[in-house]
């Protein structure tokens, strides 16, 4: 069965068969009959090596364990390493050190020491590391990994920095002697932001006033205050969707116009903004605010805080917009201006007054609570970046606010402005890779590929040198210049070899004018040897090398 299942594998390899019976002699016997003859013919196509089972049993098991070891292998258990964070503080109030020791199992030991002598910042750092090492010695710690935010201390301990002063050298010797008392000790520099705990302890020791009795130890317990001592501010009055739906149903039953008709009216008015209102608002005495309810009185007051600016407010919710609608619904009061009155009538058809609060009809959902001023700002900030906010974009933020049951007329524009000015949204917004202006082609795509060469002079003689040989890179505007008393083709060739080829690499092209130094056979042969393109300006304008002339 195995030979039939693994036939390609058996045909490609020699098969070792470990047996305890004389199978080979039986299969190779000339006197075979029946089933043995069929087996012998079927197995004859394979290269079979019959071996007897002797001591190979244990060897096979050993090879199997070596090839497929167990997952749980005994490893050398390394001893736990203690972490030591130290920091020193030197200020006009005093001098102190802070020590924080963390065990491998998570226990933390913190200690502050106030220095009774004047010390510089570096001396305070050394006193901190020495005090921490002595404290670790007292705890019988053998493996310590120390951390310090002073680059001078760590570099002098490792030998990277030399000790120029006797006091620093004495401190380094003490630290190295104490380090030999541990089996394993390392000192590593970390940023100040990762050494906050030790820094706090050092500042606590240096800033605290020295006690009258030096032998007196101070104990400062740190407690936890869970709740504030005063009551928190009143939260926004947010009604649930079920409550608003029940209120809308009750209003629809008391009104002649159904919510479906109001949705159709609202859709028609939004598509045709100049169309006059189809209905007039209907008020009920039951919808008037309850004078005996103080909570309604407080809520009915205008809590908006408009932005006081010289021009228009930045956001639309800063403009009081509910007063005219409330006055028209309650008493039918309209502005004296004809067009302003028509606008108020048209807008009021979309709103309803319930328990002193203005709600807006929705297309298919419950009523939306109308807000303005600071209340609208709080709603927008909470939905955008609150506990459940996801920093949505402008239009998405407006849709989410409507789903939460709030509305004001300029909600979309205000949300777009708010999300566009939010710092995190600007930082993580999609980047615009389109260039701000039209791109222009560059004649040299990479540095030191194309050079412009020219001769400047004669100049005022300085040490008998009157001429300058100038080469300017087209890409980086890098300039190579050298002064000569007189310039011939040999000096130009030597200058290009030393300052360009050997220094900055082999260029692709050099642009020159038609000077005698640049059109000689020797100079052209030199360029042909190094396969450098030599471009010359037009003979009509022999000094028309633009890049070189501009740099000169």
UniProtKB/TrEMBL annotation:
Any idea where the Integrase catalytic domain is?
A: 443-552
Gene Ontology MF annotations: nucleic acid binding; RNA-DNA hybrid ribonuclease activity
Ranges for the region named Disordered are: 268-316
**Pfam name, any one:** rve
Which SUPFAM superfamilies does the UniProt entry name for this protein? Ribonuclease H-like (SSF53098)
| GO biological process annotation, one example | DNA integration
InterPro entries from the UniProt entry: Integrase_cat-core, RNaseH-like_sf, RNaseH_domain, RNaseH_sf
Output this protein's name.
Integrase catalytic domain-containing protein
Q: Which organism is it from?
A: Arabis alpina (Alpine rock-cress)
């Amino acid at each position: 069965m195995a030979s039939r299942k693994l036939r390609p594998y058996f045909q490609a390899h020699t098969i070792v068969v470990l047996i305890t019976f004389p199978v080979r002699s039986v299969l190779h016997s000339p006197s075979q009959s029946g089933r043995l003859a069929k087996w012998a013919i079927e197995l004859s196509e394979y290269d079979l090596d019959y071996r007897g089972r002797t001591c190979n049993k244990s060897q096979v098991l050993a090879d199997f364990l070596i090839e497929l070891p167990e997952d749980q292998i005994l490893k050398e258990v390394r001893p736990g390493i203690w972490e030591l964070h130290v920091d020193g503080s030197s200020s006009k109030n005093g001098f102190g050190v802070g020590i924080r020791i963390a065990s491998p199992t998570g226990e933390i030991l913190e200690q502050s020491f106030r220095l009774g002598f004047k010390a510089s910042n570096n001396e305070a750092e050394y006193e901190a590391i020495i005090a921490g090492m002595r404290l670790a010695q007292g705890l019988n710690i053998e493996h310590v990994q120390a951390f310090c935010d002073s680059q001078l201390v760590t570099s002098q301990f490792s030998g990277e920095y030399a000790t120029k002063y006797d006091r620093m050298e004495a401190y380094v010797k003490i630290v190295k002697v104490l380090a030999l008392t541990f089996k394993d000790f390392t000192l590593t520099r970390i940023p100040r932001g990762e050494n906050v705990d030790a820094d706090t302890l050092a500042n606590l020791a240096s800033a605290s006033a020295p006690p009258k009795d030096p032998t007196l130890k101070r104990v400062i317990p740190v407690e936890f205050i869970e709740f504030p001592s005063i009551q928190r501010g009143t939260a926004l009055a947010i009604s649930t969707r079920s409550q608003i739906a029940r209120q809308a149903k009750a209003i629809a039953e008391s009104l002649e116009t159904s919510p479906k008709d109001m949705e159709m009216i609202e859709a028609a008015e939004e598509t045709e903004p100049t169309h006059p209102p189809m209905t007039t608002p209907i008020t009920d005495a039951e919808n008037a605010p309850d004078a005996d309810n103080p909570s309604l009185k407080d809520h009915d007051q205008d809590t908006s805080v408009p932005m006081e600016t010289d021009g228009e407010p930045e956001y639309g919710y800063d403009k009081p917009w509910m007063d005219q609608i409330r006055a028209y619904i309650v008493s039918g009061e309209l502005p004296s201006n004809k067009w302003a009155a028509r606008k108020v009538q048209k807008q009021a058809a979309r709103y309803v007054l319930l328990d002193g609060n203005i709600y807006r009809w929705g297309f298919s959902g419950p009523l939306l609570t109308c807000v303005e001023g600071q209340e609208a700002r709080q709603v927008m900030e909470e939905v955008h970046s609150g506990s459940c906010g996801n920093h949505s974009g402008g239009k998405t933020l407006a849709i989410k606010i409507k789903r939460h049951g709030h509305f004001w007329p300029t909600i979309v524009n205000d949300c777009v402005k708010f999300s566009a000015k939010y710092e995190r949204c600007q930082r993580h917004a999609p980047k615009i890779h389109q260039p701000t202006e039209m791109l222009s082609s560059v004649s040299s795509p990479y540095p030191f590929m194309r050079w412009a060469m020219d001769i400047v002079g004669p100049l005022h003689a300085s040490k008998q040198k009157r001429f300058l040989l100038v080469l300017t890179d087209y890409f980086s505007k890098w300039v190579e210049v050298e002064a000569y008393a007189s310039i011939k083709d040999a000096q130009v060739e030597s200058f290009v070899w030393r300052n360009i080829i050997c220094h900055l690499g082999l260029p692709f092209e050099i642009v020159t004018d038609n000077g005698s130094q640049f059109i000689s056979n020797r100079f052209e042969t030199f360029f042909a040897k190094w396969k450098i393109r030599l471009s010359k300006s037009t003979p009509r304008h022999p000094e028309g090398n633009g890049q070189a002339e501009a740099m000169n």
